[in-house]
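Re: your question about Response regulator transcription factor

S., sorry for the slow reply, the queue was backed up all week. Below is exactly what I fed in.
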Amino acid sequence: MYIIVDQRELVTTGYKSSFDREGVSAIGFDPDNFGSWISDAAEVDLTAVEAILLGECTDREIYPRLVKSRCRAPIIAMNDTHSLEQTLGLFAAGVDDVVRKPVHVKEIMARVGAFNRRAQTAEPVEVRSTEDIRVFFDGRDPEIRGEVMELPRRERRILEHLVKNRGKRVQRDQLFSAIYGVFNENVDECVVESHISKLRKKLRAQLGYDPIDSKRFLGYMFA
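Result:
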């Protein structure tokens, strides 16, 4: 889930729509509501956040420290104009990247993917789960033994989230928040189980085994 913070509703709704078209969950906040949310959000909601896009805000240099006190997601500042002084100030405040609008959401996703790869010290180029599977985080479908396996967006996003947390148990509500967003009340959480069932069936067909371990009440794990 991507979070867009900007005092202009036109910006937050515009970027949310762009992410929606890519099959990626996103939500927009005005700065005041975001400050309240990030301070009080449940841990399960925070783990679903992939990146925070920080747009036009009053005193926006205060937000990076607030975010990093509760969340490990990268912070990307979006500037309307080029200003070296402003860019340096944002980096000093703790943002992870600075871009100038307009910027396509695919570029944002690629930048977040690059940030995550740098954070994965064991596998710096892309996340290679096994010798059989390669998973990317920039919108590309995974590769199975060197061949691209086309997946529906929801299934690809679930696979990415499980691989990103490989070796750890991920519960259904965590997957739901990551794929559909934390404020989506129009979709039942049970839909996640249907997506995972279809994904596992496809992986078994391609690999001859199921790389996703499931335990009741404990959740799913990419082994």
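The chain has a mean pLDDT of 86. The longest strand covers residues 75-79.

Happy to talk it through on Thursday.
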